[in-house]
Structure formats: structure tokens, C-alpha cells
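Margin note: ligand = protoporphyrin IX containing FE.
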Amino acid sequence: MEPKRRLRLVGPSLLAVVIGLASCAHSSADHARLAARPGKVVDPNAEPAEPEVPHDDTPAMNTEYFLGTAESEAAQFAEFSRQIQELQRKAASEHSQPLQRGFHAKSHACLDGELRLDPRRDPRTRFGVLAEGQETRRIVARFSNGVGWKQADGELDARGLAFKVFGVPGTKYMADEQDTQDFLMTNSPTPVGRDAVEFMEFARANAKGRVAGLFFLAGHASTAAKALVRTNAVDSMVTERYWSGGVHHLGAHQAVKFSTRPCDLRLVREPARDGDDYLRRDLALAAKEGVCMTLYVQLQTDPVKTPIENSSVVWEETDSPILPVARIVMPPQDVPLAATAACDQLAFTPWHSIPAHKPMGHINRARRFVYAASQSLRGSKP
Ligand code: HEM
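Resulting structure:
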């Protein structure tokens, strides 16, 4: 979308907020206004509120704001869905590969395991799948590269970890799965872009080739730098940290980000980086011994330092510490040294969700439609 139209769409009040967020600078006047704003009391078990239409006010904790209006966002997301399918067709034809995921096309492997809650987890985190009552649930985790075609693991790229928790009752936002809760993360604390508009600009530039993608990033230094740092080739999928990037509810009254780290922080793997699929071979070897990751939650502590709508702002751990809540334990197992249809056909989306973890923010609102478009074109099977 070209800038002039976007400015009109955003409106003056949200624009002011966004500019403030981008610079990460918040004046004492901001804080005085925030302090004056009466806190909203929200029942943790309520259905999360819909986003608010931007108004002449400072942002509030745990509150989403439309980038424009509900109607303009709906039109925008329909257009992004069309564009994703166009990118899928383009990737298939240019790389002589079948129609596959719009992003994260290459699976390294899918591992079975369990989500085991930490009995000492912070009481503020005990909602949804982290609530008391069921301490262990079955999961499947898919490890992937970032781009929407299969390429050598040594190439510049993001890496993904998605895990699906089974046996989760409750209202769902998507019709295709009724008993799951998905968590999607990449090895960068922020996605490329403050919102889905910038993310899609990057996606379109990247599909034109590496040079165009890098030009985009060069022109968006503030949003891209943090994400780019992490796109180099990695040693292993099991020694990486992964972040949700986008924000989720944790109970209707709180906004959080999720992340993972290896359970053993001293874990080092140094595989020979020989061949296009060295990450898959390393993951298969690691799986033989078992893989363990700790799941963390970061609570929103400040609407400016830890924003919801501007996904390019890192939630610093000095502003909001990471709180360990569970372990993702993948016991010793054999995984095939080639991609399997069962792993490739899984469908992950942050909107496979119960209300207690409802995704928040523009980048996540777009994903509700875009993932479904990608999945319907590639023919995923739950
Ligand atoms: C908030 C940051 C984001 C994170 C952490 C993230 C992470 C991921 C991960 C891990 C996957 C692979 C899931 C799997 O294993 O099947 C994935 C797939 C995908 N992502 Fe994202 N993503 C983000 C933002 C976005 C945005 C903004 C868009 C587009 C507007 C997008 C579009 C897609 C698509 C189309 C797929 C493939 C869906 C499918 O066919 O299954 N993502 N993402």
C-alpha cells in the first residue's frame, strides 16, 4: 500500500502512537497521560474484547487497535490472502516445486512430545493450556526454514518452530480443528515489519529475489535489523531460541509474548554444514537422544515499551522478564531422513486457538485469513 493511502487509513491518533512506538522514545507526558487513564477491570475468563477503533488517546494495556477500521482491515486481509496464493504459485513455478506453504515450506522434521507444565510457574500465567488441572498434554512440533520454497539450509533465512497441543477443549476460532492449540515461533524476537502491511511488502520484495529483499530491508532498517541479525545459517534447530513475535492473550485480561530456549542452556551442536539438508540430519541425530525446550511467557508491562500493534518493537527482558511456564519434552525417537507427507500436511495457525490465547495485533489479525488461504491452496489435511 503506498504511503499516502496508508496515512489516511491509519488516522492521526494511531499514527501519532505508531510514530512514538517506532522511535521507542516515550516522553514523561506520555506516561503522565497513561497514569491518568483509569485501568479497565477485565474478567480473565471473559471472551477477549474486539480491537478498538483508534481514538485521540494514548494506547491502553491489553488493548488492540484497528489499523483503520474493521471494514478496511477485512478488505486488506482478503487482498493479502490473494497475494499469498500468488506468491505460492510463483514459488512453485520458479523453483519447479509443488504448491506448498506460502512461508516455511521446508520441513526439517516433525517430532512427537509432551507439554509439561512447570509446577512453580507464576500464578499470573495459569490460564488456558497453562491453567491448573491438566499438567501434561501431547504435542507435535514441526521445525522449518522460513521461505516459501525448498532451498539449501546454508542460505540466509529465518527458522521456524511450530507446535500443536492436543486435547484442548473450548471454543475455537477456526472450524478445521476442534481440539488443538497451536504456537508458532521463529528464531527472531520480532517479525519483519511493524504490521502485516510491512510484512507483506517484504514478502513481495523477497519473492522477486534476494537483491530486492535486501533493498526492502535496507529501507526499513528500524524494523528489519533485529529480524535480519538472526537469518544467517544456524548450527542446529535445537540450540536456537524461538519467539512468537506477535502478541496473544493469556486470559482476557493480559497480553503476552511466548518464547522458548533449550532446557540445557549449555547445549552446543556443531554439525558438519555439508549439503543442503544438514539441519534435518542434525535434528534426526538430536531426536535420537531426545529434545527439550523451556516455554516462557512475557507479560505486557507497559503499552509503549511492550506494544501490541507495533510488532517491530522488541519486548526487552529488562522491561518484562521471561517467566518459565512449561517444558516441551520430545523423548528419544527416530525421525525419517526425508520429508514425510504427514509432516508436510500438518496445518498450523495461531488462530487454532482458544479464547484464553487469542492472537492480538494487526500482524496476527491478518494471519487468521492468510494461513487459511495458503493451506487451502496447498491442500493441508488436519
Ligand atoms: C508474528 C510473526 C510470525 C511468526 C512467528 C510466524 C511463524 C510461522 C511459522 C513457524 C510457520 C510454519 C508453521 C508450520 O510449521 O506449518 C509459518 C507459516 C506461515 N506464515 Fe507465518 N509467522 C509470522 C507472521 C506471518 C505473517 C504476518 C504472515 C502473512 C501476513 C505469515 C504468513 C504465513 C504463511 C502463509 C504460512 C504458511 C501457512 C501454511 O500453509 O500452513 N506469517 N509462520
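The first helix runs from residue 3 to 10.
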